[in-house]
Amino acid sequence: KAGVTQTPRYLIKTRGQQVTLSCSPISGHRSVSWYQQTPGQGLQFLFEYFSETQRNKGNFPGRFSGRQFSNSRSEMNVSTLELGDSALYLCASSSTSTTEAFFGQGTRLTVV
Amino acid sequence: EDKVVQSPLSLVVHEGDTVTLNCSYEVTNFRSLLWYKQEKKAPTFLFMLTSSGIEKKSGRLSSILDKKELFSILNITATQTGDSAIYLCAARIQGAQKLVFGQGTRLTINP
Prior knowledge:
The complex is a heterodimer.
Chain A (H helix, E strand, L loop, with lengths): L4 E3 L2 E4 L5 E6 L6 E8 L3 E9 L2 E5 L6 E5 L5 E5 L8 E8 L7 E2 L3 E5 L1
Parallel strand pairs in A: 2-11
Antiparallel strand pairs in A: 1-3, 3-8, 4-5, 4-9, 5-6, 7-8, 9-10, 9-11
Chain B lengths: L2 E5 L2 E5 L4 E8 L3 E9 L5 E6 L6 E3 L2 E6 L4 E6 L8 E9 L5 E3 L3 E6 L1
């Protein structure tokens, strides 16, 4: 069974640009959640999608948005990039909200 | 505000030692406690604990949850250099996939 797949693995963007990250969950998993990991703040919850609906959102500005498609694949978008958005972005999938969450390899975003 | 605190933040031991990592939590609508091992990028799942007092075990690793005192421990016996990693614990909120993570414990095993 394939694991959680995130693309791209690395990205370098300039301040002010926007970026879209993709996450394909484990087959059969309907819940996808996104996290930002930085050395200073650790792993912080961004948002969760279940069956194409956003169920929870963390304390991030509106520049961070996401969506989920009918095949459970999810995308995360960050607009008007700032230097502080440089981080490892991880997505996790699970079959329901009560089962284990498995993480992808992450996308390393660098904003210059 | 939901909070998860891990201790120690860093630990250096010799191969063969036994280590205990701690995780305390203060979370509204707590559902379960998860442990992950992070070596390079993807945190890999270790345990999910939902009930108090029931030890979960996988090889040399074991973990237990105390819902009364709001903490969990992760034990690793007969440590090996391959156990060197950051160990993360996270509290899951009831009815959601939201995980609140601790800062992590950086474990280094010296040969």
